[in-house]
């Protein structure tokens, strides 16, 4: 999950927040975020 998060930040800086590649990576990260939030 940490690797995906780092890659997301890199892509946001490189392409901006509305680029398709950034959105796709963000969607891959979503299930992991939801899983972590359920633990809280």
TrEMBL record:
Gene Ontology biological-process entries: regulation of sporulation
Any Pfam family the entry gives: SpoOE-like
Entry's transmembrane regions: none
InterPro entries associated with the record: HLH_DNA-bd_sf (IPR036638), Spo0E-like (IPR018540), Spo0E-like_sf (IPR037208)
GO MF annotation terms: protein dimerization activity
Domain of life of the native organism: Bacteria
Protein name: Aspartyl-phosphate phosphatase Spo0E family protein
Species this protein is from: Clostridium botulinum
């Amino acid at each position: 999950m940490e690797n995906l998060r780092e890659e997301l930040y890199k892509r946001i800086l490189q392409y901006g927040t509305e680029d398709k590649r950034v959105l796709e990576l963000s969607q891959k990260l979503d299930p992991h975020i939801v899983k972590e939030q359920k633990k809280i």
